[in-house]
Write a structure and sequence with these properties.
The complex is a heterodimer of chains A (about 375) and B (about 325).
Chain A: E1 5-11, H1 17-31, E2 40-47, H2 49-54, H3 56-64, E3 68-71, H4 85-98, E4 106-111, E5 116-117, H5 119-131, E6 136-142, H6 151-170, E7 185-188, H7 189-195, H8 206-218, E8 222-230, H9 237-257, H10 263-292, H11 298-323, H12 333-356
Helix pairs in contact in A: 6-11, 6-12, 9-10, 9-12, 10-12
Chain B: H1 2-25, H2 33-36, H3 45-48, H4 55-62, H5 78-96, H6 101-107, H7 123-126, H8 135-185, H9 232-271, H10 277-288, H11 291-307
Helix pairs in contact in B: 1-8, 9-11
The chains are: A alpha/beta (about 375), B mainly alpha (about 325).
């Protein structure tokens, strides 16, 4: 019997050492608490030198626990000269090729620095690699870690419910509503390594570029990955705004630079961008209508306006229900509504903010909560 | 094959080293006999045929030791004749011997050679300074065997690596199984996994705890670690709850959307406010842009929940 190998690869700068440590240890913990896993595991930590320097003791302790540590050399350059996270991901690709791990028997599970896995994640991965029906898998991400009910945290709830849309779109030809993740994705290593992460210059959303390439080369080879991944939302509205800005620039980058993008997908991306950009004018016009008295317009639009609003509210409500098993901290309904509105306003403003500013390599979203403000948000184990 | 040349070299070296010893103890090769030994009838007439023009031959003879110099009449001197008679007898005697060992080589000149069995060929005694007719064949066979041996060794190495990996896996899983049993048997609060280094007695050369950190059990964090609560039971509860609500979500979305839309229409009609034509052209366009996206999202969510049984097998 030869079990496939799953490399749990955490690729990050490394400055959020405690979050990163929790991610790695969640893998080590659950592989030893989950029976009937049909794979062998390895944990790879891909770090930048400046990140490693912030907490060498933490990283060495992880190494002693079985984590394989890779620090991307400062002088390392990819053939196309990409930078940022794509550079580190490409470095990992080359290491796998050197170690002859680029094979159908090896899978790579991508984690961000704050992506913790659970028992369900591992069983979902095991189920996926055993079935072998798809080459790339993605699933639902929850955001229960350090959840405090802030506007940015409430806004993240909608992303979890939206992941059902993402999964369906991803498994359809041409990915009509644009869905993919950069984390909680499982890729067969030979597929990933043949496509690579290298691109010209800085790719703000390297995951989107990767998805476009895989689809162009292998077709619709995406499948649903069972099990949740567990992450944490941005702590502040500013961080949330910067994160969304990076996404917008990622889509624009793909529109301009991706040669593999066919016309149909290009139009899909364009429409998605247009939808996002239209959100803020819609809100502004809605507010302005009170003063400008053009309410009769609702006669034409109300048929769908109700549907859009209900869909948005459903996203918050069902998103919260998805998290209810994992989040202990509760907030009042008025506060929840208020935070939801604030979080949504940040999201609708993000594309316009992205037009006026640019993300940089120095963009760093803190995920380590200060030790003094730790909050017990996770429900203890049921067993 | 790197050794191939080496073997050939060693072989040729061995033959070369053996040559003097063999030639000193074994009769002269057969093709030289006719020039040194007279015919069977003891007729020396062939020496009479030497013409004066063949002085050079005489010169060569004159370089022979004194004992073997012919007389001026062309007849050999008496002592030489005695030696030649002796050689003649030896020659006849050799021809009478059964065709074995060295005499076999002598008979090759007069009769078709009987091919020796390659398996029984003893070059040390039988080569007699000649190149074995099977040497090349033997080298080919030897090099082929060496190639096969090399392949087998490599294959063995790969199998050994796989075996070692399997042994590691087996060892790790046995350790995990033992810990799982301990964990499951332990009552509630004391379910803390012990930190025990696994030994690797299955691995060659390992006599104690394996220094490799990969085989060490990671110490789980305390129960307060967030990920400790991410169990499959919670996942299944969450997913089954959502799947159970799927129809209700669809129904309520449609009902509430219709109600909300109706309310908005009623409000707009009742307001009876004049609307600038420019807004009539602009606003519906802006507000309708995201509608296809939300409609697709609605159906996508419903579809993925309907088609995929996302639940996972429970863990005892």
């Amino acid at each position: 019997v030869s079990f496939p190998t799953v490399i749990f690869q955490i690729t990050a700068i490394g400055k959020n050492a405690r979050s990163l440590e929790a991610s790695a240890r969640s893998v080590l913990y659950w592989v030893r608490h989950t029976p009937k896993l049909a794979f062998q595991h390895r944990v790879w930590l891909i770090l930048e030198p400046e990140g490693y320097a912030t907490a060498p003791a933490t990283y060495e302790a992880l190494r002693a626990s079985g984590v394989e540590l890779w620090v991307v050399p400062r002088g390392y350059d990819t053939p196309l000269g990409t930078r940022g996270k794509a550079r580190a991901l490409q470095y990992a690709v080359e290491q796998r090729q050197a170690l002859r791990l680029s094979s159908p028997g090896t899978w790579v599970y991508h984690q961000d620095e704050e992506t913790c896995v659970g028992q369900d994640t591992l069983l979902g991965i095991s189920d996926f690699v055993r079935a072998g029906r798809a080459l790339v898998g993605s699933g639902i991400i929850l955001y229960p870690i350090d959840w405090v009910g802030s506007p940015s945290h409430v806004q993240e709830l909608t992303r979890s419910y939206d992941d059902f849309r993402v999964m369906d779109s991803m498994t359809m030809p041409d990915n009509p509503t644009l869905g993919f993740h950069g984390s909680h994705i499982l890729v067969r290593s030979d597929v990933e390594d043949s496509v690579g992460w290298d691109s010209l210059g800085y790719a703000p959303a390297e995951d989107l570029t990767f998805e476009i390439r895989v689809r162009a080369r292998y077709g619709s080879v995406f499948g649903v990955l069972k099990g949740f991944a567990y992450e944490k939302g941005a702590f502040t509205l500013r961080d949330q705004l910067r994160q969304r800005r990076r996404w917008v620039h990622g889509v624009l980058f793909a529109l301009v630079r991706s040669r593999e993008l066919n016309v149909r997908r290009r139009l899909t991306l364009l429409y998605s961008m247009f939808t996002w950009f239209s959100a803020l004018p819609s809100v502004i016009l809605l507010v302005a209508s009170v003063e400008l008295h053009y309410g009769p317009l609702l006669i034409y639009t109300s048929l769908f306006t109700g549907f859009v609003w209900v869909s948005m509210v459903t996203g918050y409500l069902e998103g919260f229900r998805l998290h209810s098993e994992y989040v202990r901290r509760t907030i009042s309904i008025p506060r929840f509504v208020l935070h939801g509105i604030v979080g949504a306003l940040v999201d609708v403003s993000a594309p316009w903010y992205a037009l006026s500013t640019r993300p940089s390599l120095g963009d760093f979203i803190p995920k380590d909560r200060p030790a003094s403000s730790e909050v017990p948000t996770a429900v203890p184990a049921m067993n | 094959m790197p050794d191939r040349g080496g073997v050939a070299d060693r072989k040729s070296r061995s033959l070369a080293e053996d040559e003097p010893a063999v030639s000193s103890g074994v009769p002269t090769p057969p093709d030289e006999i006719p020039s040194a030994i007279p015919g069977p009838d003891g007729d020396w007439a062939f020496l009479d045929g030497l013409s004066p023009e063949e002085d050079s031959a005489d010169d060569r003879l004159s370089e022979q030791p004194e004992t073997y110099r012919f007389s001026e009449s062309g007849n050999p001197p008496g002592d030489v004749r005695a030696v030649l008679d002796q050689l003649d007898r030896i020659s006849v005697d050799l021809r009478r011997r059964p065709p074995s060992n060295a005499s076999e080589a002598v008979d090759e000149t007069t009769s078709p050679p009987a091919l020796p069995d390659p398996e029984k060929w003893d070059e040390g005694e039988s080569a007699v300074g000649t190149v074995s007719p099977y040497l090349e064949e033997r080298l080919v066979v030897a090099s082929a065997s060496m190639s096969a041996l090399g392949r087998d060794v490599r294959d063995l190495g790969e199998r050994w690596e796989r075996l070692r990996g399997t042994a590691e896996l087996l060892e790790r899983e046995l350790g995990n199984a033992a810990r799982e049993v301990t964990f499951l048997r332990a009552p509630g609060e004391s379910r803390e996994m012990p930190l025990v280094p696994l030994t690797s007695t299955l691995l060659p050369g390992a006599a104690g705890p394996v220094p490799s950190s990969r085989l060490l059990m990671a110490r789980p964090r305390t129960g307060s670690a967030p990920y400790a609560g991410f169990t499959v039971a919670r996942y299944n509860t969450t997913i089954s709850g959502l799947k159970a609500r799927r129809r209700r979500i669809a129904l309520w979305t449609v009902v509430l959307a219709a109600a909300l839309s109706a309310a908005l229409v009623i409000l707009a009609v009742l307001a009876q406010e004049p609307t600038p034509p420019v807004w009539l052209a602009l606003l519906p366009a802006v507000w309708m842009i995201p509608v296809p996206f939300f409609v697709l999202s609605f159906f996508s969510t419903q579809r993925v929940l309907r088609r995929n049984h996302l639940d996972l097998p429970g863990v005892p």
